[in-house]
Amino acid sequence: MTSISYPPLAIVEEGIPNAKRSRRGRRTTKIRGVRAGTWVYIGLGVVALSAIFPYYWSFLIGSGTAATINDPNMSWIPGGNFIANALAVVNDPAVNFWLALWNSIYSSALIAASVVIFSTLAGWAFAKLRFRGSKWLLTFVVATMAVPMQLGVVPLYILFADLGWTGTIGAVIVPALTSAFGVFWMTQYLGQTVPDELIEASRMDGASMIRTFWTVGVVAARPAAAMLFLFTFVGAWNNFFWPFIVLDRQSPTLPVALALLQSNYFVDYSIVLAGVLLATIPLILLFIVAGKQLVSGIMAGAVKG
């Protein structure tokens, strides 16, 4: 290898306008970063307040009584009935809270894991493998996102009714095991992140395509896979339309179970919003646990890419 000779440090520093001499006669370079202005902080504050206010409002109503939401002189200080209202939700036999919570956790985690696995495999195939009709097939997959889910509800319900799956959590999990958006997301990410030269070098070293995918593709796809898992989990957790149609009161998910709180003639919104806050606690914990790892993974992928 040929050695590279660098110019003396003094010559380099002479061309730096912000270079300053230290006490020992050496020059130190001062790098000026771009600081955020006042309006940036104001804008971020408005966005943060806009995101936090619905939670505070729900907690404000959920910690009051049934008459709190209609009180014109309502105090903006939370009351002391939140625990009582939360216990009313948990202990309501019509809601079946703990079974609904387990169904939501189980189905959302399984759906998110399945979407990540299949989307990563399909994305690797579309991005790095050459086969006939790949572009047309990818176009067809993306085009399916333009079809509303409501158009397929009736035939899908008839199918699961014939299979005897209505009223079971499997009817919610199976239709969501794959995602057209997930395939498109991983295809774009792997196509831009993994260079073809790296795959060719791996194949020249004797690695099979499966081993190349496992050692190269999976490692490179971790940041995008983490984001896809998180967003898919949240979407499956908040899904109400299809579970409300195909499930019954004996085996609901959490959004379906909380909807039963509004099935009476008189709706106590303090209990309803207390239940809504209970349903958001697992999502908040998920973001707290995975948020730092998610951001660090994205930054690592950006630097390595």
UniProtKB/TrEMBL annotation:
Q: How does it sit in the membrane?
A: Multi-pass membrane protein
Q: Which Pfam families match?
A: BPD_transp_1 (PF00528)
* Organism listed in the record: Microbacterium schleiferi
Q: Which residues form the ABC transmembrane type-1 domain?
A: 101-290
Q: Which range is the signal sequence, renumbered to this chain?
A: none
Q: Where are the transmembrane segments?
A: 36-57, 105-127, 136-160, 172-191, 212-237, 269-290
Which InterPro entries does its entry note?
MetI-like, MetI-like_sf
Q: Which UniProt keywords apply?
A: Cell membrane, Membrane, Transmembrane, Transmembrane helix, Transport
* The protein's name: Carbohydrate ABC transporter permease
Q: Which family does it belong to?
A: Belongs to the binding-protein-dependent transport system permease family.
Q: What is its main location?
A: membrane
Compartment(s): Cell membrane
Instruction: Name the domain of life this protein comes from.
Output: Bacteria
Keyword field contains Cell membrane: yes
